[in-house]
User: What shape does this take?
Amino acid sequence: MHITQLNRECLLHLFSFLDKNSRKNLAKTCHKLLEVFQDPLLWSLLNFHSPVELKKDNFLLGPALKHLSICWYSERVKVCNTEDWMKNSFQKDFCKRHENTVSGFLLDVSNRCPNLLSLTLSGCGHITDDCILQLLKNCPNLKSLKLENCVRITDHTLQAVTLHGASLQTLHVDFCRNVTQAGLERVREKCPSVMLRAERSASMIPDSKPEKKLMLEKASRKLVQL
Assistant: This one.
């Protein structure tokens, strides 16, 4: 029996075991398999492990998407989690390209995937409060939002959760160093049913300019002398 003789349900089941590249390559072989590749039922879950993957045409975004994960830890993107004032011009340009790619992708998700239920972003130094705000506004069914080491996330995201996260059940902001204890307490007060986790976030040193760090160091030395 040839694979194209299988019914639609069987073909969808087979496709579900393949990664995005394999699905795309198989879809190129005939019109019937291309139709299976384009079936929204195949794209309820998406995982990405590098910014480059977001620019490929080996996946579909649409209302069927329920679970999205963007997690990367490679050396190439670690610089994006560094304070801006510590980066040289080459690094800033490199990070700006990543930021445009990620923010553009998340804008597409917020506009085309209104039924999103869970979003996990880890190691994404490019994610901004505005990105999360748009997602919360346009994806009213979002139940789980997990952010880890997203250094540009601040209390503005926490405020957006209290205003637009009506369906949210789980919120993680682990190792988000620019989130404050006051912001976390506000979420606990206004959204008591949300399971909030913020490992190390409010206890980490937030981003600041060199002159502010110098002032903190001088103040610390004075206290020691006293």
